[in-house]
Amino acid sequence: IEIRQDDKTINRIADKENCFVVGVFEKFQGKSVNDKHIVLVNPSDMGNMGTIMRTMLGFDIKDLIVVRPCVDVFNPKVVRASMGAIFSLNVVEFDSVGEYLKTSQNKKYFFMLNGTKELGKFKNPNSQYDLVFGNEASGLPDFLIDIDESVVIKHSKNIDSLNLPISVAMAIYEFTK
Question: For residue 54, which of 72, 20, 31, 80 has the smallest C-alpha distance?
């Protein structure tokens, strides 16, 4: 790995003051595997995406499926928020929910505000499953409620929903314990 020290270049391209290292890498596309997947449908926040990646790796889940349109998983803000976790994950992108559904053989758990089963109230699955989450603002399409399992994370009526990375972290914790 070539290493250069050049503060002037870092200062020119950095979008934050506390940036001391710049890395250059080629974008890569993962391969779909049947294991544990976190599936994000149309995620739109770069910080959330990176935080989810870091959380996944913390629980040894290494397969991320992303359904477009979505943030660029290689955007520097995503890479920074992931704390480098992106380089240990298998990230696969699909153009639509339908395309994703055709390829995954795993049992699917769709996390929805109107889900029919409460998180923590059912037996944990085997080693092959997909935990599917929707966009931060709009959630998942309603037609998914009738496919496999729909799951709700109960919370007080003081809020309308939980933050996406928090929901993903709670689900991962519950499914991996």
Answer: 80
Q: What is the DSSP letter of 90?
A: E
- Give pTM, 2 decimals: 0.84
Question: What is the per-residue pLDDT across 72-125, written as a single tens digit (0 to 9) for each?
Answer: 998 889 988 998 898 889 999 999 999 999 988 899 999 999 999 999 887 766
Do the bridges between strand 36-41 and strand 107-111 make them parallel or antiparallel, or are there none, so unpaired?
unpaired
As a 3-state breakdown, the chain gives helix, strand, coil percent values, each rounded to 5, of 30, 20, 50
| β-strands 90-94, 117-118 pairing | unpaired
Rounded to whole angstroms, the Cα distance separating 114 from 145 reads 8
132-169 residue pLDDT tens: 999 988 999 999 998 899 999 999 999 888 999 999 99
